[in-house]
Amino acid sequence: MPEPGSYQPVSEQDFLEKHSELVFNLAFRLTGNRSDAEDLAQDALIRALRALPGFRGDSQLSTWVYRITVNAWKNRVRAEKSRGFWKTISFGAFGNDKDEDAPEFEPAGKDAPLDTDLEKEGTAAVVQKALLQLDADDRAIVVLREIEERSYGEIGAALGLAEGTVKSRLFRARAKLKILLDKVSA
Amino acid sequence: MNDDTREKLSAYLDGALSDADRLAVEVEISRSEEVRLEFEALRAVSAAVKGLPKEKLPDGFMARLDARRFRDGSKPAQPYFILPPSYRPLAFALSSAIVALVVWDKNHVPSDALEPKIGWASQKVAVKNAAEAPSSIDVSGQLSALDAGGAGGGAPKDESFDGLARKDDVRPKGADSASTFGKHLNAPGKPVEIAEEPAPAFSRTPSAAPAAPAPASEGTLADNGAVSARSEEERSAINERLYKSFEAEKKRMGIARILEPESESDDKKLSAGGREMMALQASPEAARLGRASIVSSVRGSAGAKAKREGAPVLKALALRSADALYTAWAAAGLPGAPPTINFPEQMAIFLAGPQGSGIVSVQHRRKFIVVLYKDAGFEDSSARVHSVPFSAKPVVVKLAE
Fold it and tell me: Residue B336 gets which letter from DSSP?
């Protein structure tokens, strides 16, 4: 937590340079595809820029931006759920539904060299799909903790949850992810 | 292993336990194979998620963000378009003042424009709307002056407007006018005195216009609500307005169509009602018929069909005096005398149509009096006349089904 009054306002340009990629990454992990991620990231950044003049440094700027991004995403999820168009939930348990932005699995030919990058890409896609099976809050907690390496306190601040809640929900999310990944491995 | 232990393993993985809890968990992991495997599994999950690659910003992301911000209005193209926000009330006030000035200027008549100029025997007239307009504008003197000043006065000019104007301005007392002719010049109210001898309509003899003489050089006017034409431009403007009004009136009454029939079907139409109507209007007795409630409409699908097929298009007059009825009857060349109508409680609907045409019935609608006619089958000419209670409603003529 920054010291009260220690916050130095940043220009829009600096803000965008520092946080655009961070917001886009978070958006990508939350939505699971780049086009939705871009839309969400732009939405979040626009909201953040509008609110930036009112930011007084009560939390870290990045935590504040995470909160805006996660809230924007949760609003979308709610709206899409209510319309029945929540595409991200339509995968099924690693089902056959294809997302155009998701990496494709292609069988390697016999003479294809072992490609560790390709292997990594395949693993990443599996993990990403598993991640998308989590509900909105759990997914956000996992992403903020594992990818953005935020503390329980920061995650709680970003999501409006108590630290204890973050701790227990993170544990449950990991357990669920383990089950999902085990299914794929099997 | 219970959930509490598992939760502690998760927190241990994140380094979020107190020293005491951390030591306890470490002891459990070293002692229990099950706990150790569980911890390894959690760590593998965490590592898998941590291993997800960082995504780079898509190409053009910032440009699209800028465009979207601009579109959403959250980022102006320029810091200020013209003025900073604090100046916007001032800008609003200035624009309002400009609008008010333009409106005022459009409606404002400069006082000196209405003042008679020295040496001009003109009269100040300010006409803002039809209600304020003088009952008539007599430009005959002006026209006479122009004619007199023309090329020897021998060559015939355009149609004599004075005669036409007089004919059209004549309105029987109490009659409602359905015409728009000269509406911008003639207001309801004071009728124009007409000459004892009605001027022949469509006269091409300018000298036939009995008008108050006026000095030719000034183009002065008659006394009765006259407007002073103070310049060549004004005289031209008045002439043009009169001519346009006349043309519009001719068109409205169907006269323009029937002047020169070029085909048999045209002639059929003319002979049906238009020619008779024209004859009535061109008659020296036209003044006694009045211009009120001249109807030239044919409505309804049957009427439209009749028009398409070249069927006669009939017209009717609403006549409000016995005199007018006799005049119309005679002008139409009908034999004998018209039926008796109880004027003024009643009025006569007179159908101007071919031989054999007649009125089937007259309906009083909310807004109209509808005259249903047939263009054949009536031997008795009195079928051309129908008495109805006096009404100021417009009359619509329809072909009976």
Answer: S
Nearest-CB residue to B14 (from A49, A131, A145)? A145
pLDDT in tens, B300-321: 555 566 555 665 566 777 787 8
CB spacing of A37 vs B55 below 8 angstroms: yes
CB B300 within 8 A of CB B398: yes
Gap between the Cα atoms of B30 and B18, Å rounded: 18
Tokens of B212: 């108050």
Give pLDDT tens digits for A18-73. 899 989 999 998 888 888 899 999 999 999 988 888 887 777 888 889 889 988 98
H/E run at residue B371: strand B369-374
Query: Of B253, B280, B309, which closes a domain?
Result: B253
Residue B8 to residues A32, A163, B15, B24, B286, Cα–Cα distance (Å): 30, 14, 10, 10, 113
Percent of chain A that is helix, strand, coil (3-state, to 5): 70, 0, 30
Q: Give all strands (DSSP E) within B6-98, no chain letters.
A: none
> Does B55 reach chain A within 8 Å, measured CB to CB?
yes
Assess whether B263 and B390 both reside in one domain.
Answer: yes
Q: Is residue A126 part of a domain?
A: yes
Could B52 and A177 be called an inter-chain contact, meaning their C-beta atoms sit closer than 8 Å?
no
**Chain B residues touching A152 at Cβ < 8 A:** 14, 16
| CB-based burial label for B135 (10 Å; 0-12, 13-18, 19+) | middle
Q: How many CB pairs under 8 A join A and B?
A: 92
Number of compact structural domains in chain A: 2
B14 in contact with A, Cβ within 8 Å: yes
**Which of A88, A105, A130 is a domain's end point?**
A88
pLDDT at A158 over 60: yes
B191, burial (CB in 10 Å: exposed 0-12, middle 13-18, buried 19+): middle
Residue B295: helix, strand or coil by DSSP? strand
Q: What is the value of pTM for the model shown?
A: 0.41
Answer yes or no: do A170 and B64 touch at CB < 8 A. no
User: Which chain B residues are within 8 Å of A37, Cβ to Cβ?
Assistant: 55
Chain A contact for B16 (CB, 8 A cutoff): yes
